[in-house]
Structures are given as structure tokens and as C-alpha cells.
Amino acid sequence: MNVPTWLWVATIGGFVVVILIDLFIVDSRPHVFGTREAGIWVSVYFTLAMCFAVFMSLYFGLNYGGQFVAGYLTEFSLSVDNLFVFLVLMTSFAVPSALQHRVLLVGVVIALILRAILIVIGAELIARFAGVFYLFGAFLFFTAWKVWTSHDAEPDPQGNGLVRYVSRRFAVSPHYDGSHLITKIANKRMLTPLALVMIAIGTTDVLFALDSIPAVFGITQEAFIVFAANAFALMGLRQLYFLLQGLMGRLRYLNYGLAIILAFIGVKLILEAIHETTSLSVPLIPIWFSLSFIIVVLAATAIISLRFTGDEPVDDPVSPTVPKE
Asked: Is residue 216, in this structure, part of any structural domain at all?
């Protein structure tokens, strides 16, 4: 797959334009996102992703279009698991509801930049060492086990090394000052908790990227597709946060579905590694089967979760606390 420079520039430029529109038009007046508004924007981002898939199919062929859709669905489904972590961080830092959209927007920009760096590194490793698929496959098996057994685990916002470093090196105000990242108290400039939570969300996402990026490389080895799938998934994730905020507690079986998907892609990677590095004849999993498998597992997980928790009350997963100084 030969991706021309203009397409890279156009794709990255398109995401930059969307981010600027989001920041200066949609979020020009910080407000609480309701279910209806969030639902509209989730539909918009999903439609844009599908239009991109159609373009990929027409320009590069159906196989690459299918790789993008499978990669996008994989990234999006794995990113849904991030939403609970985002909720914990928002609550731990007591982020006002009207500021949560801006926090997610900036956090996603940070995450996208860091993920792009990881994608470049991953693509270079694959280009130089076909055997790296064994490492990726083993890592995905480990991650699948970790996700399967981590249903009740809660992240510790103070466990983020960068947040601890910033808190030690800079004065941090205990109070928010609207949408400002820096405030002045007694003639002394201080970071606001808003700055810390943006750093926490953006850098915490990298931990999820260490799981999800190898998974997408298991579907496609094209760095352009991996980047686009990550970008589209992250852009739509912010609005999905507000849309599913009341349902997060009901998706209790999501981690099992994600674990199954990760293990499946791990198998796919190991088979491809054997095919590339040995003379053994092993079956390769086609992209249409991968896409179908991911859709079926996600649908089954959502249906089972909602069916068996539909009549149960949903408690807040965490209690609001004041950020630690």
C-alpha cells in the first residue's frame, strides 16, 4: 500500500480542522453535554469514519477498506473501556460538568500525539523484524488475561507519574478557575486542577494504547490505517463518554468481550508470524472473518450486559474527592 504524501497531509489536516472547530465553535461556551447533543456528535463522527472507509475502499481496494473498518471497530471498542477510567479521573479531580468536554478534547489531542509516536515505532519494528509479531501476540495474550480479570480494578489518579512530577515542580491551586489552566492567587501564578486532569487523561491513555496499537497492527500492518483508525476512534470517544455516562455501570461484561477480541487478534498475529518466519503451512485469518468476529463479540457482549443488568440500579463507581495536593 503506497500512501501519497498529499493523503497524509490531508488526513492530518482534516483532524486538525475538526479539533479547531470543536474547540472554538462547539466548545466556545463550556456547557454540560446532554444525551441528545452527544448522540448527534457520535453519529457525525461515526458517519465520517464510514465515509473514510468508503474512500479507502475506492482508492486502495476493498481489502484495505475492510482493514480500516476492523481496525476502527477494534480501537473504538477498546477505547470504550477507557471511559470508565475517564469517569474515575473526572470524579477524582472533581471536574465541573461544564468543563468535562474541554478536558476530554485536550486529553484526546495529547493522547493522539503520543499514540502517533508509538505507531511510528511499531511500524518501524514490523518493517525490520517480522518476528516482532511473536512479541505482539504474546503481549496481547497477557493483556487479554489482564482485561479478563480486571473488572473491579480502579485507577489511581495520583499513580500517574507525570501528574506527580508536575504537582511537585509547580504550585497547584486547590480550586478551579473556569476554563483557565493557570490562575493567580496572592500574586502567585499556579496551575489549576484542570491542567492536571488534562495531563492525567492524555497520558493515562498511553497505557491503553500499549494494548490497542499492537491489536490493530494484528489486523493491518499499514501505519496509515493504524493512525487513521486511532484518530477516528479517539475523536468519537469524547462524545460517547457523555452518551454512555449513565450506562457505564451496566456494561459489566464488556471486559470479557474485549479480552476475547484481544486473544483472537493475538492468535492471528502468531499465525502470521509463523507464516512469515518459518516454512510451516499455517492458515491465515482473512480480514472479513476478523471484522465479522469483532462485530459479533461486541454485539453479544452489549446485549448480554444490558439484558442481565437492565433492571438493576446503577451506583456511581466512585465518590467525588478533592484532588490531592
From this structure: yes
- Report the distance separating Cα 79 and Cα 94, nearest Å: 22
The DSSP bridge partners found for residue 190 are 183
Judge whether 274 lies within some domain. yes
C-alpha cell at 121: 515505532
Q: Does the residue 316 lie in any domain?
A: no
With respect to residue 215, please indicate whether it lies within any of the assigned structural domains. yes
Helices (H), the chain: 5-21, 35-60, 62-92, 100-128, 132-148, 161-169, 193-217, 223-243, 254-277, 287-309
Contacts of 161 (CB under 8 A, 6+ apart): none
Total structural domains in the chain? 1
CB 226 within 8 A of CB 119: yes
- Ranking 24-28, 34-38, 68-72, 114-118 by mean pLDDT, the lowest is 24-28
What pLDDT band is residue 320 in, cutting at 50, 70 and 90?
Answer: very low
Residue with cell 452527544: 38
Cβ atoms of 81 and 258 closer than 8 Å? yes
Q: Cα–chain-centroid distance for residue 166?
A: 24
Its domain, for residue 204, covers 7-309
Would you say 270 and 141 are in contact if contact means Cβ atoms under 8 Å apart?
Answer: no
